[in-house]
UniProtKB/TrEMBL annotation:
Pfam families: FtsX, MacB_PCD. The chain crosses the membrane at residues 267-291, 322-345, 365-387, 417-437, 497-517, 726-750, 773-800, 812-835. This is Macrolide export ATP-binding/permease protein MacB. GO terms for molecular function: ATP binding; hydrolase activity; transmembrane transporter activity. The lineage of its organism: Bacteria, Bacillati, Actinomycetota, Actinomycetes, Mycobacteriales.
Length: 852
């Protein structure tokens, strides 16, 4: 017991005596744990904010009726009238049909009010004598509710953002339906409980809302309250019995609120998983750094540990002392990581609140975040330190006291052989996966990627010798003896070099994979537009959102238009499957796109028929002459004949139906277009036609006119925005990788203090010492970058091939990104070596040589 206490004191004294080493090790843990803690705190905060909103949703609602079929136009007015006539019998106090739809409102500058992703919806204003709850919407003093088609009420948070007030005149564009943009006056501001930062609610009078957002005979949902003495559950049972079975969904207000919470929490679960996946990447990289650090610490303390063995400490005591130090470091790293994670969550919350429609709430710092940070910090560190601790306990005292004893001198033969075998198997899995298409091959590529990473871990030390040695010969040649010294230092301990480089390898591998996917996506888009379209202009919604059907009519009437085709969106059922495609309305698709019909089929699309792509034909089994029966939202079955199959054209995937099919499957109120493609009349200049199109669509706030290059660029910009988010998150792993190089070099300088002192004593200048450290760091960084880029490019290329089923074209490697990455890795090497190099250059020769 006494000896254990002594060993703990020795461990604590050792930590206090090496504050720099303690800081570097703790900081590597902090980066990983902070991202885990921050992810949990952030998602818990957003979840709490949404739950608070939904707790105040559907105020006063005892029971809500919605159709079972999501594609249904709603609850028929006849059903509403029947329930209204039986209010006393069923125990209904008030019954309110709900009419709503997507809208866009202009701000004070006449531009579309940006919501940051939050909903922007139009609803019916309910006066106090009609609303189920007086708190459902309160008109603020100085305003009133809308009473005619030219008036609206607007939630106060949206009004502030749009710089609108009572009396302001503006425009509203319906997100569905064929109505023209409407001139409206804001007559009231609404205080909505729990509205998010970007949420927009435009309220019309009831008659106008019904005309705008329904077909006149259906309501999207019906809310009702119960009379005193009737519980929501009792009313639910009575209303269910009064309705036809299996057609409507009848839920209590509590069930509605809980379903909304569950939907959001499902999204948050996916969002959390993505954040934690990147946190896991950071932890993997951090684990290697921690392992590397403890290996070096043990190597530097061989003589100290051997002395402890010589004075009576057992192998277990030595091993436990190292693990005890790891426990303390992990505990400190976890605690600090929790604090930084909370700050990270606060930053994410502020960012999303200003840039998106996510709601706001106080930070939720609960037990899960605290436990995760401490647990991950301690466990990862303990695992990372276990192998060095076991190695330290086996060091014979006499041998360890030899000055030349160094860590990492064991043979590499067996691990290299195992790594080679795993690498061959991984490459085989990647190649086999790349030969197929779909989920199975993609999983095979993923398994091969995991195997390739394992192979690099195992065979990395053996690979480092020839690769780093070769790089050192080339890069170090201009520096003469300093270059040769740097090369010797870099290959001296291949285990350490490989472990240090692996942090960079993993981060850059993921960068290369994501870069290959992004470049291939953009290449597919460019190819689809260049080889698949004849249209000179594409009229589409901002951010690729749908546009009202009225836009197509406005475009057709523009001077200089030879042909225009609107691609309406169809969503219906075939059997039990929900399918989505397009309808060509206003002209033939062959007028604006290149259709390579197979088997001699005509390229004319019948008004009551459809044509399908080759990919769809294979996947669905829809061939020329087949009849496909679609079921629309009302339950009406619409048989459609396949008149032909066209060669895959990514701009026209997956199938096209005629205008008569569109009219039968999509109610007028739900008819929206993905885009309108336009070709000019002979002799009409592009500039003239563009100006005419912009003039005709100017009043539609969300519509933009783009030429082919602008259309490609807009899609590429969205891809780049998504990639930028991923790259930003991967920056954590790369930051840890840079820290790992700093950590390793700093500890290496400590380890080589006597050697550096000898070199200084025989005449090496401080600038030469710094230069040797810079070159050593550059060699390690470039080695890691080369492995990462090669692995990432191969995995990304194979993954793209497996995604052909979903429309991804030929793999395109991001050569510019690869070149920048390799150059940046050399810069990273120099930056990472700045501080260790300065420390090394300040080594005093006599003091270093005098150290025992």
């Amino acid at each position: 017991m006494a000896s254990s206490s002594v060993m703990r004191r020795v461990s604590l004294r050792n930590l206090r005596a090496h504050k720099l080493r303690l800081f570097l090790t703790v900081f590597s843990i902090v980066l990983g744990t902070s991202f885990v803690a921050g992810s949990i705190v952030f998602t818990s905060t957003i979840s709490k904010a949404f739950n608070d909103i939904f707790d105040s949703a559907a105020p006063g609602v005892s029971v809500e009726i919605t159709p079972e079929n999501n594609q249904s136009p709603g609850v028929p007015q006849s059903v509403i009238d029947d329930l209204d006539s039986r209010k006393q019998e069923l125990g209904i106090d008030r019954i309110v049909p709900n009419y709503s739809g997507l809208v866009t409102i202009a701000n004070s500058d006449g531009k579309a009010l940006q919501t940051g992703g939050a909903p922007s919806i139009g609803t019916a204003y309910l006066p106090a004598d009609v609303a189920l709850s007086p708190d459902s919407s309160k008109i603020l003093p100085g305003g009133r509710g809308p009473t005619n088609a030219g008036e609206v009420a607007l939630n106060s948070s949206a009004a502030d953002k749009a710089n609108l007030k009572v009396g302001s005149k503006t425009k509203v564009v319906l997100g569905q339906g064929s109505a023209e943009p409407r001139d409206v006056t804001v007559v009231g501001l609404i205080d909505l409980p729990g509205s998010t930062s970007g949420f927009v609610n435009v309220q019309f009078d009831q008659a106008t809302a019904r005309a705008l957002f329904s077909d006149g005979s259906h309501a999207a949902q019906v809310d009702m309250s119960a009379v005193a003495g009737v519980s929501p559950e009792q009313l639910q049972e009575r209303v269910t019995g009064a309705l036809p079975p299996d057609i409507y969904k009848v839920r209590t207000g509590d069930q509605v609120r809980q379903d909304q919470k569950d939907d959001v929490n499902q999204f948050l679960t996916i969002f959390t998983a993505i954040l934690l996946a990147f946190a896991g990447i950071g932890l993997i990289v951090g684990t290697f750094i921690i392992y590397n650090t403890f290996s070096m610490i043990v190597a530097q303390r061989n003589r100290e540990l051997a002395l402890l063995r010589a004075v009576g400490a057992s192998q277990k005591q030595v091993s436990r002392s190292v693990l005890f130090e790891a426990f303390i470091v992990g505990l400190i790293g976890g605690a600090v990581g929790l604090g930084i994670g909370i700050a990270l969550a606060a930053g994410l919350k502020a960012l999303t609140r200003s840039a998106s429609g996510l709601p706001d709430a106080p930070l939720q710092i609960g037990v899960p975040a605290i436990a995760a940070a401490i647990f991950v910090g301690v466990v990862v560190t303990m695992i990372s330190a276990w192998v060095p601790a076991a190695r330290a306990s086996r060091v014979p005292p006499v041998e360890a006291m030899r000055a030349g004893m160094a860590e990492g001198s064991a043979p590499l033969t067996m691990r290299t052989i195992i790594g080679a075998v795993v690498g061959v198997a991984a490459l085989a899995a990647i190649v086999i996966g790349a030969m197929g298409v779909g989920l199975g091959p993609a999983i095979a590529v993923g398994a091969g990627a995991a195997g390739a990473i394992a192979a690099v871990v195992l065979a990395g030390p053996a690979l480092s010798r020839p690769i780093v040695g070769g790089l050192g010969t080339v890069i170090g040649a201009p520096f003469g003896k300093i270059g040769r010294l740097a090369r010797t230092n870099a290959v001296r301990n291949p285990r350490r070099t490989a472990a240090t480089a692996f942090a960079l390898t993993l981060g850059l591998m993921l960068v290369a994979v994501i870069g290959t996917l992004g470049t291939s996506f953009k290449g597919t888009v460019d190819d689809a537009v260049d080889t698949g379209l004849k249209a000179e202009f594409i009229v589409a919604g901002a951010n690729q959102l749908p546009i009202p059907g009225a836009v197509a009519t406005a475009v057709q009437q523009v001077d200089g238009v030879a042909s225009s085709v609107s691609f309406g969106i169809i969503q219906a059922k075939v059997g039990d499957d929900t399918v989505a495609g397009y309808a060509a309305v206003g002209g033939q698709p062959a007028d604006v796109a290149i259709l390579d019909m197979q088997g001699g089929a005509p390229d004319q699309l019948p008004a009551d028929g459809m044509i399908v792509s080759e990919r769809t034909s294979k996947d669905k089994g829809w061939n020329r002459g087949d009849v496909v029966t679609f079921t629309g939202p009302t339950g009406e079955e619409v048989p459609v004949t396949v008149s032909g199959v066209y060669a895959d054209n990514e701009a026209l995937q997956p199938w096209l139906a005629g205008p008569d099919v569109y009219a039968k499957l999509v109610p007028p109120a739900a008819q929206v277009s993905a885009m309108v493609m336009v070709t000019p009349e002979p002799g009409v200049s592009a500039d003239t036609l563009r100006q005419n199109l912009e003039n005709a669509t100017d009043s539609y706030l969300t519509v933009q006119v783009q030429d082919r290059d602008q259309f490609k660029s807009s899609i590429s910009t969205q891809i780049d925005q998504m990639l930028a988010t991923l790259y930003a998150m991967l920056g954590l792993a790369l930051l840890i990788a840079v820290l790992g190089i700093v950590n390793t070099l700093a500890l290496s300088v400590v380890e080589r203090k006597r050697e550096i002192g000898m070199l200084r004593a025989v005449g090496m200048l401080r600038s030469q010492v710094r230069r040797s450290i810079y070159l050593e760091s550059v060699l390690i960084a470039i080695f890691g970058a080369i492995l990462g880029v090669i692995l990432g490019s191969v995995i990304g290329w194979a993954l793209v091939r497996t995604l052909a089923k979903w429309g991804l074209g030929t793999p395109v490697l991001p050569w510019s990104l690869i070149a920048v990455t390799l150059v940046a890795s050399a810069v990273v090497g120099v930056l990472a070596a700045l501080w260790p190099a300065v420390r090394a250059a300040r080594t005093r020769p006599l003091e270093a040589i005098a150290e025992a």
